[in-house]
């Protein structure tokens, strides 16, 4: 895993080392620190699932999720996996 302190950062403020875009170790570290922590992440606006039964699939990091509007009109987010078939929507 590459340590960000070990990278050579260009002197110009608007440039970053190109390696940060392709380094698998840095990507995994970002997933852990940004997406898999205890923070809330906005994932869907309620206008994206306007009608009862509408749904939207997406990923947060590598976690497959879906948002659906239920019969009561509420939008809820679920882990996108079928427990008995192991499939996704």
Short description:
The chain is of the alpha+beta class.
Number of DSSP-assigned strands: 3
Percent of residues in helices: 10-25%
The sequence of SSEs as H and E is HEEE
| Largest sheet report | 3 strands, antiparallel
List low-confidence stretches: none
Shape type: elongated
Q: Write out the strand line-up for the largest beta sheet, numbering strands in chain order.
A: 1-2-3
Helices and strands: which structural class? alpha+beta
- What integer is the average pLDDT? 84
Tell me the distance between the termini.
Answer: 34 Å
Number of helices: 1
> Rg to the nearest angstrom?
18 Å
Fraction of residues in β-strands: 15-25%
Description of the structure:
This protein is of the alpha+beta class. 13% of the residues lie in helices and 20% in strands. It has one helix at 24-35; strands at residues 55-60, 63-69, 75-79. Strands 1-2-3 form a three-stranded antiparallel sheet, with no helix packed on it. A hairpin with a 2-residue loop joins strand 1 (55-60) and strand 2. The longest helix has 12 residues, at 24-35.
Question: Which key features would you list for this structure?
Answer:
3-stranded antiparallel beta sheet, single chain, 89 residues, alpha+beta, 1 helix
Layout of helices and strands, plus pairs?
Elements: H1 24-35, E1 55-60, E2 63-69, E3 75-79
Antiparallel strand pairs: 1-2, 2-3
